[in-house]
Amino acid sequence: MIRFAHTDYLYLLLLIPVFIVLYFAWSGWQKRALKRFGDLKVIRVLMPRHSSGKPLFKFIILLTAFIFLVVGVSDPQVGSKLEKVKREGIDLFLVLDVSNSMLAEDIKPNRLERAKMAISNLIDRLQGDRIGIVVFAGHAYKQLPLTTDYGAAKLFLSAVDTKIVPTQGTAIGEAINMATQSFDDEQHNKAIVVITDGENHEDDAVGAAKAAAEKGIKVFTIGMGEPGGSPIPLYDRNGNRLGFKKDRQGKTVVTKLNEDMLRQIAAAGNGSYVRASSATTGLNKILDDINKIQKKEIETRQFTDYEDRFQIFLALALILMLVELLIADRKSKIADRFNIFGKENL
After folding, report:
1. Looking at the DSSP assignment, which residues form a beta bridge with residue 307?
2. pLDDT, mean of residues 34-48
């Protein structure tokens, strides 16, 4: 298993397209500058040692060195020892609503971001429990299977937004059914936490919670939003607000927290319901209720020792940078003999 100790540095790889654009812009400017001096064929004769192939070759070397450097400072680590680890815990699926109504801003910064904060805080407080993530809108999708890798859970969570599902809607029942079916057959205790505004337009969420409870799975609900409701903001690609979502009659759509629905789901699932707000997410009560579930011994296999491999990538980056320095910009006589870069590039 490979992991990175400092994943934030990997975002530096986003600079690669910028470097490529800048290089070709500079190359184009250089050619235009040469044209101002006269005919290019004449200039090439006057500059027999000039090579247009070498700068590109050196740029590719530097770009590769940059990639190795970024990977190196991110500290890739390889699992070297796989052991059986016994834990006391439960299996927990977090079921997160990613429909457009979760963009409402009646709790700040909006319902979805506040829900992600709540999940992140919950993950930080888990000990020995396996966690999975299901997201839903018009349909449900398993985002993360059950795992004890809380770092991976946070990584998947960070990528969640309303655009990751192709169909809008609020299929709470389908999401509960998917989470129920995603548990394995082992007999340790299980729970589902549904985080949504409760606007169910698709299916029988109460029936799904009841079916889960019949299998020994408790279903908890956290309501995101305010009963008074809030309009759904619309943004362009640059993040500028365009206005609010409207219905076919041109009226602004107001999305309201459906607490009755969420209470019914929690009651049918032998769980409990809490409502989030800007000040609190009801996380403490949900955690207290989850901790009351009897925890059983869970045996998992995981890497317990990791070895750093950053030295390899930093060494490769250094070697490539030294190679780039040793390559002259002009053509050498050896290059003429072997025609490495091609005379057509003179």
Report:
1. 78
2. 63
**Buried b / exposed e across 185-208, counting CB within 10 Å, b at 16+?**
eeebbbbbbbbbbbbbebbebbeb
Beta strands 190-196 and 217-223, pairing class? parallel
Who's near 334: CB < 8 A, 6+ residues apart?
A: none
* Average pLDDT score over residue span 82-95: 75
Cβ neighbour number for residue 9 with a 10 Å cutoff: 16
pTM of the model: 0.62
CB–CB of 132/146 below 8 Å?
yes
Mean pLDDT, rounded, for 257-262: 92
Mean pLDDT, the chain, rounded, equals: 82
Q: What is the set of domains in the chain, with CATH numbers?
A: 2-78+307-345 (no CATH), 91-294 (3.40.50.410)
State residue 243 phi and psi, 5-degree precision: 145, -150
What is the model's pLDDT at position 340?
46
Give CA separation, 168 vs 140, 179, 223, in Å: 11, 19, 19
Please name the residues in contact with 101: beta carbons below 8 A apart, sequence gap of 6 or more. Answer: 111, 170, 197, 199, 232, 255
DSSP 8-state secondary structure symbol assigned to residue 164:
G
Half-sphere exposure of 334 (CA within 13 A, CB side): 2
Task: Give the tokens for residue 165.
Answer: 């599902």
pLDDT (0 to 100) of residue 38: 62
DSSP state at residue 295 = P
Residue 306 β-bridge partners: 79
Contact 179, 152 (CB under 8 A): no
How many residues are listed for the chain in this entry? Answer: 346
Query: How far is residue 146 CA from its own chain's centroid?
Result: 17
Q: Contact, 127 vs 168, CB < 8 A?
A: no
pLDDT digits (tens, 9 = 90+) for 43-73: 666 555 556 678 888 899 999 999 999 999 9
